[in-house]
Design brief:
The protein is α/β, with parallel strands linked by helices. It has twelve helices and 24 strands. The structure holds 1,4-dihydronicotinamide adenine dinucleotide.
């Protein structure tokens, strides 16, 4: 069979690209190795973790209910039900993706796909080996959790983002290795469910990709609420024991300690799924397993595009995969898409307090030679933050000194991952600090803090 577009992989990058190709009237097929469409994000990533985080937040309100004047006798957490609810949300959306394929007349094939070169893709599905041909191919095969050497994940003790989502009870103790988004989000979820959490990070700070001030604030909050954070820490000799897992850790101080916990989460990054997909049959150039592309998402093999976690040089985020898919399909359809702008990608981490950021950190901006001005506004001075009872965090804006260009916005605070939207829209429309100072922010809202931070650049914040 022959298609205008064949998409390999049905994560947020792949399925969205297939939908858009259908909308443009292109004859489209999608090939997925797993029984359900939706990829890691839907089944074992963004959606299930955020479902658990939502429950963790509600549970916190019950735990701290008396402070708000709400008295509940003996509230209990029915954890199996929490997991079932999460699964219902996932299943509902997986059906939604199937529906979207039907709506856009996209042919769905199940099987592990391999590029054969010259526009051909082979996959082995229910009917054995099949070959389909495409004028264009979009590779969107995603990534999987990286493991530490010598370790194998299992459903009970050594966990990745997959196994930890299906525990049937809340562990008493948890060690998390890696303080990137996966590590800090699960630390934050289980801490709120009552687990004693220790987080070990090899680099000198938590969430190392964020602005340094954000890392400091998250660590301060984590410590204040009882999460043990060890940065500059090296974990070794990890082994399973009768009670769970044991490891020795060399702390930043040089001291060595033995740690034990019921569960161990390994969250040390993700590797691209580019092995075994037939790259050797093409001229696709790679860099350490990641596929090299140009601004239109074209690989070095004519007619083959790559999007999402397998692409070299872009962050591994669902919304980046989707945006890259839109560029690839628009290019295939003969439109003139604008390449994704790497400095206008929202980064969102669903901890308590949450993190939302876009653009350059203060250190990055200075390293790139910008003369910068900084504006900072604390949520301690924001009335809505008082109302929701979450005073920690701040908005920090990094602005170019002469013209007020917005170089970066870094928010840590209650629901910061929603608040970053305004900053991204401002940056995409090339607003300046001056525009943001004049923008009227509703009162009382959390996002007033964004307006105040821009005023703070010039010492003009009203409430601090
Ligand atoms: P990551 O690469 O963001 O973080 C891994 C962390 O582990 C790094 O800080 C690294 O220094 C540390 N590390 C590596 N080896 C270590 C070792 N041996 N001992 C101690 N620390 C070690 O990877 P992560 O958190 O697994 O996330 C993978 C991808 O998924 C990231 O690109 C992330 O942004 C994305 N993601 C996004 C989310 C969101 O948008 N809310 C949620 C979860 C993941």
């Amino acid at each position: 069979m022959s298609y205008d577009v064949i998409v390999i992989g049905s994560g947020p990058g792949g399925y969205s690209a297939a939908v858009r190709a259908g909308q443009y009237g292109l004859k489209t097929a999608i090939i997925e190795k797993d029984p359900k469409l939706g990829g890691c994000c839907l089944h074992v990533g963004c959606i299930p973790t955020k479902a658990l985080l939502h429950t963790a937040e509600i549970w916190q309100h019950f735990v701290h209910g008396p402070e708000e004047g709400i008295l509940c006798e003996n509230p209990r957490l029915d954890y199996p039900k929490v997991i079932d609810r999460k699964q219902k949300i996932v299943d509902k959306h997986a059906k939604g993706v199937e529906f979207l394929m039907k709506k856009q007349k996209v042919d769905v094939f199940r099987g592990y796909a391999r590029l054969l070169g010259k526009g051909k893709v082979e996959f082995s599905g229910e009917k054995g080996k099949q070959v389909v041909e495409g004028r264009n191919i979009i590779v969107a095969t995603g990534s999987e959790a990286r493991m530490l050497p010598g370790l194998q994940p299992d459903p009970d003790v050594i966990l990745t983002n997959i196994e930890i989502l299906n525990l049937r009870s809340v562990p008493k103790t948890l060690i998390v290795i890696g303080a990137g988004a996966v590590g800090v989000e699960f630390a934050s979820i289980f801490h709120r469910f009552g687990t004693k959490v220790t987080i070990l990070e090899m680099l000198p700070r938590l969430v190392p990709v964020e602005d340094e001030d954000v890392s400091k604030e998250l660590e301060r909050f984590f410590r204040k609420t009882g999460i043990r954070c060890e940065t500059g820490a090296k974990a070794e000799n990890i082994e399973k024991t009768a009670a769970g897992a044991k490891l020795s850790v060399t702390l930043a101080s040089g001291k060595t300690e033995t740690l034990e916990a019921e569960k161990l989460l390994v969250a040390v990054g993700r590797k691209p799924n580019t092995d075994g997909i037939g790259l050797e049959n093409t001229r696709i150039a790679t860099d350490r397993g990641f596929i090299k592309v140009n601004g239109m998402q074209q690989t070095t093999e004519p007619g083959v595009y790559a999007i999402g976690d397998i692409v070299a040089g872009t962050p591994q985020l669902a919304h980046v995969a989707t945006a890259e898919g839109m560029v690839a399909v628009a290019h295939i359809a003969g439109k003139s898409p604008v390449p994704i702008h790497k400095n206008r990608i929202p980064g969102v981490t669903y901890t308590e307090p949450g993190i939302g950021s876009a653009g350059l950190t203060e250190a990055q901006a200075k390293a790139q030679g910008y003369k910068v001005k900084i504006g900072k506004f604390p949520f301690a001075a924001n009335s809505k933050a008082s109302i929701v009872g979450m005073h920690d965090g701040f908005v920090k804006v990094v602005v170019e000194e002469k013209f007020g260009e917005i170089l970066g916005v870094h928010i840590i605070g209650y629901h910061a991952y929603e608040l970053i939207a305004e900053a991204v829209a401002a940056m995409e429309s090339e607003s300046t600090a001056d525009t943001m100072m004049r923008t009227i922010h509703a009162h009382p809202t959390l996002y007033e803090a964004v307006g105040e931070a821009f005023n703070a650049v010039y010492g003009l914040a009203i409430n601090a």
